[in-house]
């Protein structure tokens, strides 16, 4: 579609977002036609403090060259290989980085500094280029905030939003906050080999027979999915599968809310034989990034989207750090305009320090490719070279965890079945409960097993915790979500899995 | 009041905020009474990345010792007197500062890191101690975000919120967003000597005769005021005046929303004779801070509040930098609980980098007082010693601007009358329009004069821009708001005022 065409999906914008008017700060004063404005006006207008009031003159930042674990106290200063760069009051190099003078200032209308927004556009163009033209990116205060803004954009009172039956619970809250109704769609948890997460047959049937099955509810207006490294299951949808879902959503006019905090953390197939595992390289070159771009990442729904039907929620939390409070949304420009208005009256901007530290880190990582690549690609490749280092740790930790699970007595006794994750930071493990299910299905057994986990000292989250509707999920809530993210070292992962599997062995004694 | 008493103002909580339920992330699993939990549990539960994934190992921060202006490029690195400190991955000194390991991590439920919240409580205890017991502080993403959250807390559809007739327009937007009705209260702009801003007689009459005068509207439930350095007028309410307003609000059961971004930037009386002006000291000692605390700051409405009627919105934007996106709200703990729930589903936290840089700056400034003061007071005095340096610049700039205004031809011809500001960053200047007012009152003349400002190259904001209701304010919208904040140097302020006053002189030619 071209920019001149009308956006055919604008009927999905909530009444709240469609009707929101932002009062301009100043009135519009008509100027006489013959008036010649002063060529160099001065301003006593806005309330922006001069940067001379800002106490910070410069930041020197030391980055580790690799993620490093199990550090304590001043050990980190000494043992980790590090590299340094500075952020000054003025960007003298003029490389389009964010200097302190700008980063510490107000930013209007509050959608993120243009330098970082430009990077997000370049990244998406390179990695997940939308198949429609009139798209844009806007920053958020992290993905959780982004999902709240997307709910504001789309959800009217009484609107039905389809969600995966096990999912990130705060999104449900954002939907309910606007009077929306999250409606669960079954997941296929039969096997991590064949499953794409969403049960496509179930979804197709649900949409085909909605009026008959759900006479009291409106037809769904959107589906919320975590397509890569689904939380909690760790499953991922193949590109072919996404095409089928996209076509189904087109047929039934559903918006696709793609929540993708883990999409860069794809996990190649698990090799049980350790000698077959590839060694991660400490330095990452252009060819490796190219290979990752071509074969390592599952393309976003955006890449299939010819209509502006996909609203993608992206995050820097899992790849740089949650404390930045930075993420971004990719969507049709008309959606972005509405999201921007909501930001202007709610969050009113994001930390300029976070933005400057993130963007200057990216530019620092990019310098390694300068001469070889364009400035734009330097930034993207620099960023991805760090992302790949993070991903390598997740791949390694996944191996450590699955090794321990498959080596356990519980596995050899067929008490557990890991769902090998395709991406992200979670390994889900199904437990083969043998007791007859009561009316509460697996929830009953899960609650009993949770007692054993507390006894043996291992905290986990259950599928039962994260299901949208206890009744609908009662027969496949027999799994536990184990994170790869938080342990200090491999030994801690192994010890944690030992406690987890031992608890289960004891439970079935 | 004591904590055990019921909060008598909880009926002011909006239905939205009162009914909001946050679904817990995990279910509550009942544990058998005889179960002994493992003494050292490990966690595979949450999704928090280990800090080993965070690329930043340390930040070295260079602060200027004083605000410094008119710097360019690498000049700032060379000419400004600076001091340095570091933020490391681990807070080894253990002084309660925020280290990178915590700052870069998720923070739950998203109300700000406890270390910075503790500082805000200490600051308020020292400077504006509430007269009720059960109060607390919660961070915001800057005051604009704080005001949005306060609107969520209080405003139901159809609620009337009183506001100053000229005010910060985004707050109106936050009220309207919830279906509330901002209703203007007249300001007394007769003279900066005698005015406290709000026209108390008007307000008293309005509340006394509300049903008769406004039969179609509900009784007001709150008043929104910027009591110190009112935007745009620069006026301030004396403590005695606040007591009268507070008593009136008690009588009519109004919540007081105190927006106080400029409260620390009080401006002592303007001395026209330059030889009578005091010299600002470059180093600020304990006695000076004590003097500022006792005589330099107008106590907040909180200090009069025995009931939890005041909700105070505070900001670090004007004192440290807007790009931090950090402010805080002080209110009754029951209000804070509701604000926290809203934060949990909307902003979901604030930049840990901003919080760490701010808190560690405060602790750095505080070290100068260590040995003399308690750790808690070191932080407060350290912070205030920086604030006083910022304030000294505003006092100086106010002098420069008023000198230029009073020295102008426009003033000598009685065309203008500055309202000498009591606090904040704005000087408002009334223009004595002589033409007969048409049905649009002063708005017509303001629009014509704005043309001259564009012609002569000076951007200003008009009272007309910032009035809530054109009709109500048409006879006192004859003023312009000039900022002290944004100019690069004194010479720029003088040149700006020359253009401003010259435009007016020309207009009246």
From TrEMBL, chains A, B:
GO terms for biological process: aromatic amino acid family catabolic process; lysine biosynthetic process via aminoadipic acid; tyrosine biosynthetic process. The keyword Transferase applies. It holds the Pfam family Aminotran_1_2. One of its GO terms (molecular function) is 2-aminoadipate transaminase activity. Its cofactor is pyridoxal 5'-phosphate. Gene3D superfamilies: Type I PLP-dependent aspartate aminotransferase-like (Major domain). InterPro entries: Aminotransferase_I/II_large (IPR004839), Class-I_PLP-dep_aminotransf (IPR050859), PyrdxlP-dep_Trfase (IPR015424), PyrdxlP-dep_Trfase_major (IPR015421). Residues 108-486 form the Aminotransferase class I/classII large domain. Keywords: Aminotransferase, Pyridoxal phosphate, Transferase. Belongs to the class-I pyridoxal-phosphate-dependent aminotransferase family. This is Aminotransferase class I/classII large domain-containing protein. It comes from Babjeviella inositovora NRRL Y-12698.
């Amino acid at each position: 579609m071209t920019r001149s065409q009308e956006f055919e999906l604008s009927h999905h914008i909530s009444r709240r977002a469609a009707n929101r008017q932002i009062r301009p700060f100043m009135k519009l004063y008509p100027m006489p036609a013959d008036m010649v404005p002063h060529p160099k006006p001065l301003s006593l207008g806005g309330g922006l403090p001069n940067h001379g009031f800002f106490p910070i003159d410069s930041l020197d930042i030391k980055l580790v060259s690799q993620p490093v674990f199990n550090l304590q106290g001043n050990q980190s200063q000494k043992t980790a290989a590090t590299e340094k760069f500075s952020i000054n009051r003025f960007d003298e190099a003029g490389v389009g980085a964010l200097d302190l003078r700008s980063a510490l200032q107000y930013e209007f209308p509050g959608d993120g500094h243009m330098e970082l927004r430009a990077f997000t556009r370049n990244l998406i163009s390179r990695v997940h280029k939308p198949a429609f033209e009139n798209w844009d990116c806007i920053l958020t205060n992290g993905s959780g905030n982004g999902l709240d803004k997307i709910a504001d954009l789309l959800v009217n009172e009484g609107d039905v939003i389809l969600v995966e039956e096990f999912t990130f619970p705060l999104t449900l809250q954002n939907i309910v906050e606007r009077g929306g109704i999250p409606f669960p769609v079954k997941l296929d948890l039969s096997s991590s080999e064949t499953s794409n997460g969403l049960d496509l047959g179930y979804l197709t049937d649900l949409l085909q027979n909605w009026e008959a099955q759900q006479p009291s509810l409106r037809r769904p207006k959107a589906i919320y999915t975590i397509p890569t490294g689904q939380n909690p299951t760790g499953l991922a949808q193949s590109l072919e599968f996404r095409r089928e879902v996209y076509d189904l959503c087109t047929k039934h006019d559903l918006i696709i809310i793609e929540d993708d905090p883990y999409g860069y953390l794809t996990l190649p197939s698990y090799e049980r034989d350790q000698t077959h595992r590839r060694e991660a390289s400490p330095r990452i070159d252009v060819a490796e990034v190219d290979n990752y771009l071509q074969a390592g990442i599952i393309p976003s729904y955006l890449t299939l989207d010819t209509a502006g039907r996909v609203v993608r929620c992206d995050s820097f939390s899992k790849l740089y750090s949650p404390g930045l409070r930075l993420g971004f949304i990719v969507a049709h420009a008309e959606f972005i305009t509405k999201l921007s208005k909501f930001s202007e009256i709610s969050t009113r901007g994001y930390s300029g320090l976070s933005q400057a530290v993130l963007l200057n880190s990216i530019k620092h990582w990019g310098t390694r490719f300068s001469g070889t690549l364009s400035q734009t690609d330097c930034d993207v490749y620099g960023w991805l070279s760090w992302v790949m280092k993070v991903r390598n740790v997740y791949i390694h930790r996944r191996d450590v965890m699955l090794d321990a699970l498959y080596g356990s007595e519980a596995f050899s006794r067929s008490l557990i079945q890991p769902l090998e994750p395709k991406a992200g930071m979670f390994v889900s493990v199904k437990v083969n409960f043998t007791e007859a299910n009561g009316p509460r299905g697996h929830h009953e057994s899960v609650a009993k097993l949770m007692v054993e986990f507390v006894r043996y000292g291992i905290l986990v989250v259950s599928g039962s915790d994260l299901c949208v509707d206890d009744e609908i999920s009662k027969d496949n809530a027999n799994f536990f979500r184990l994170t790869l993210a938080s342990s200090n070292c491999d030994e801690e992962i192994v010890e944690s899995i030992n406690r987890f599997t031992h608890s289960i062995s004891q439970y079935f004694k």
